[in-house]
Design brief:
- This protein is α/β, with parallel strands linked by helices and 151 residues long.
- It has a single domain, classed as Response regulator (Rossmann fold), CATH 3.40.50.2300.
- A 5-stranded parallel β-sheet has the order 2-1-3-4-5, sandwiched between helices.
- Strand 3, helix 4 and strand 4 form a beta-alpha-beta unit.
- The longest helix is centred in the N-terminal third of the chain and has 13 residues.
Length: 151
């Protein structure tokens, strides 16, 4: 059975192009589970088990093939906010979601993060945000990037 609220999100997916999502977390089992749910909803998910692997993926994939990154905050080497900043230096138009269970993340660190979603709220808010980014044209459609007004 899927998480509460996921069914409603899935009904709207047929109208959307599938963004390419890079998911980064050092909690491997939780990352795999979230990636499976996201893929069941029709999105393409690539996983990285830490910041350095995420950076390698972004540079190896020529920057343009990842539309959205979903990052944990607490990771070795650098936190999710620092990683968001690094990934945005590689691809400035990249959309970022900080998906973390950490409380009290300083807003001053979140300058390269578009949205904060707490893990404790379940996966439905995360899916809803992915759909929202795609719906308003903030993610690439096909092979060309779309610009959103006011983003």
């Amino acid at each position: 059975m899927l998480y509460t609220g996921v069914e409603a999100v899935m009904r709207n997916l047929k109208l959307l192009t599938s963004p390419r999502i890079l998911m980064v977390d050092d909690e491997i089992e939780q990352l795999k589970l979230r990636a499976q749910v996201i893929e069941m909803c029709g999105f393409a998910a690539i996983t990285a088990y830490g910041p350095m692997e995420a950076i390698d993926i972004m540079t190896a994939r020529q920057r343009g093939t990842i539309d959205l990154v979903i990052l944990d905050y607490n990771m070795p080497v650098m936190n999710g906010c620092a990683l968001a900043q690094k990934l945005r230096s590689i691809r400035p138009e990249l959309k970022t979601i900080l998906h973390s269970g950490s409380a009290g993340i300083p807003r001053s660190e979140m300058t390269s993060v578009d949205v904060l979603i707490h893990k404790g709220d379940g996966i439905a808010p995360l899916l809803k945000q992915i759909v929202e980014f795609a719906r308003v044209g903030m993610l690439r459609s096909g092979s060309s990037a779309l610009e959103a007004d006011g983003a």
